[in-house]
Design brief:
6-stranded parallel beta sheet; single chain
Length: 162
C-alpha cells in the first residue's frame, strides 16, 4: 500500500546487498531475498546504484516496492537513459524518492546529503539541524556500508525529533 511520505528525513545506505553485513547486521540464517524487507525495518531509504536498478526487471522492482513499508523511499542513481527505464522505475510508485544526482532540485524538492563515519556526532547534529530547516524531503546516505554508524544516525534523528 502506497501512501504520502510521513517522514521528511530519510536515512539509508548505498544498496542493501552487502555480504559483510551477514552476521553483523543481517541474521546468519536470513535468506538473501528477505534482506530488503529486513533492511527497511531499520532504515527508510536506499540509494540503488545505476548498475543495480538498470539490471532489475520490472517484476523485481515491483517486488522491492511490495517488500517495503509505505514510508520507504528508493533513490535511483543516474537518471533514466530511456523511456523504457523511466517507465520501469515508475513501477516503484510513490516509493521513488528521487533521482541522484537530480537535475537542479526545485525549491522545496528532495535533497541528498552524504554521511561519513568520520564526522563526529556533534558536528553532524549541527549540520542536520540546519538541513532540516529547509523545505522538502532530505535523504541522508552513508558513503560506506556501515550499518552500525547508520543506526547511530537514526538514533540521533530520533533524539533531535527531526
Amino acid at each position: 500500500m502506497d501512501a504520502a511520505p510521513t517522514y521528511r528525513v530519510h536515512v539509508g545506505a548505498i544498496g542493501w546487498e552487502h555480504p559483510h553485513w551477514v552476521g553483523s547486521f543481517y541474521p546468519e540464517d536470513l535468506p538473501a531475498e528477505w534482506r530488503l524487507a529486513y533492511y527497511n525495518q531499520w532504515f527508510d531509504c536506499v540509494l540503488v546504484p545505476a548498475s543495480r536498478w538498470r539490471a532489475a526487471t520490472e517484476e523485481e522492482m515491483i517486488g522491492w516496492r511490495e517488500d517495503t513499508l509505505a514510508r520507504f523511499r528508493f533513490v535511483l542513481e543516474a537518471g533514466p537513459a530511456s523511456p523504457q527505464e523511466r517507465a520501469r522505475a515508475g513501477c516503484l510508485g510513490s516509493k521513488l524518492g528521487m533521482w541522484y544526482p537530480s537535475p537542479a532540485p526545485a525549491q522545496g524538492g528532495p535533497r541528498l546529503t552524504w554521511l561519513t563515519p568520520e564526522e563526529d556526532l556533534k558536528g553532524l547534529t549541527v549540520r542536520l539541524k540546519t538541513l532540516a530547516q529547509e523545505p522538502g524531503e532530505l535523504y541522508l546516505i552513508g558513503r560506506r556500508a556501515d550499518a552500525a554508524y547508520l543506526n547511530r544516525v537514526v538514533t540521533l534523528l530520533e533524539l533531535l525529533q527531526l
